[in-house]
Write a structure and sequence with these properties.
With 229 residues, this protein is an all-alpha fold. Helices cover 72% and strands 0% of the residues.
Length: 229
């Protein structure tokens, strides 16, 4: 028997307990109670249940409505999910305006994945006015928090001299982080810079070392470059 006199958080906890036992119908009832009391996380989970068909037939529209409501209330996962759903356009028609809206909300919550996705939209001008300045600042925000994709893209800005003054030395130092973490494209870029002495002292052996690391991951450009050396 469920105690009816629960707070929103208590209803949510009850729902999670039922979910662990895969009793999704009982979990759904608790989630609805928590939603009625304004719990954003419960709203997001309920949306997920409906989208995935965990409590009957899939209901993408209603599930997404719950997901968006949770996103507007501040749930980070709901913001990321709503942005991804509208970005991919697989469950519903793609909607770039909503994609930008929810990535912006998630980025404002400090999420680096959202910041990178939003930066890419501004860098390419997809659905928003192309703005390298906004893109760079978003990448820098995520890079300062250790996001390797953001660090890589920040390095590209320094290498190309987009929005900021071209600086090969800074680009090299930035590429080094994702390269060390195993990103093949960063390893390849480092190799080219070492091979040609761009932003760093020329070192063919180190260049080969980075190319071998990238080639070992199946990176075609590295494999081709090695065969031509």
């Amino acid at each position: 028997m469920i105690n009816q006199n629960l707070t929103a958080d208590e209803w949510l906890e009850q729902a999670k307990q039922y979910e662990q036992k895969k009793e999704y119908k009982q979990a759904e009832k608790c989630l609805k109670e928590a939603c009625d009391l304004g719990n954003a996380e419960a709203e997001a989970i309920l949306g997920y249940y409906l989208i995935e068909g965990l409590v009957g037939e899939k209901d993408i529209i209603l599930g997404l409505a719950h997901m968006e409501a949770a996103a507007e209330k501040g749930d980070l996962r709901a913001r990321l999910s709503a942005a991804a759903i509208y970005h991919e356009g697989l469950l519903v028609p793609a909607n770039i305006q909503k994609t930008v809206h929810y990535y912006t909300l998630a980025s404002g919550s400090g999420n680096t994945t959202a910041s990178c996705e939003l930066a890419t939209l501004y860098a390419t001008g997809l659905g928003v006015p192309k703005d390298d300045g906004i893109a760079f600042e978003l990448y820098r925000f995520a890079a300062e928090r250790g996001d390797m994709i953001a660090i890589f893209n920040s390095a590209d800005f320094y290498y190309d001299g987009r929005y900021i003054e071209q600086n090969y030395e800074v680009a090299y130092k930035l590429y080094l982080h994702p390269a060390t973490a195993g990103m093949a494209m960063a390893q390849y870029n480092l190799a080219l810079m070492l091979h040609d002495g761009i932003g760093v002292e020329k070192n063919i052996e180190q260049a080969k070392n980075w190319l071998n690391k990238a080639a070992a991951q199946g990176f075609d450009k590295a494999i081709k470059y090695l065969s031509e050396m």
